[in-house]
Design a protein that fits this description.
With 100 residues, the protein is α+β, with helices and mostly antiparallel strands. Helix content is 38%, strand content 32%. A four-stranded antiparallel beta sheet has the order 2-3-1-4. 11% of the residues are buried.
Amino acid sequence: MIKLELISVRPMSRNVDRFHTSDDGIREYIKKNFQDTGKLVSMTSSTSEDYSTQTRTFIFKSKSGYEDFVKDDILQYQNLLRERYNMYHKIAFKQLVTEI
C-alpha cells in the first residue's frame, strides 16, 4: 500500500482564515473514481490543535492506484489551484509518499 500525506502549514503571523478546500464535486469525483473502484482505501483529514497545520492522508491499495491518482488531469488542475491559493496566502506545503 502507498500512503500519501499532503501537509499544509499556515504562518501564525498572517490572518489566513482557512486552508484551500476542494468543492463537493471533487470529493465526489475522488470517491467515484478511486474509492469506489478500490484504488483508494481511505482518505482522512486532520488539523492541529492550534489550527496551523492540516494533514490530508490518502491510503492507496497499490502503487498503480497512487500513480493513477497523481496523473489524473482533473486532480492535477486542482493541485494548481491549491498551489496558487497557498502561494497567495503564504501557506507552506509538502507532500510525503511512503510505502506501508
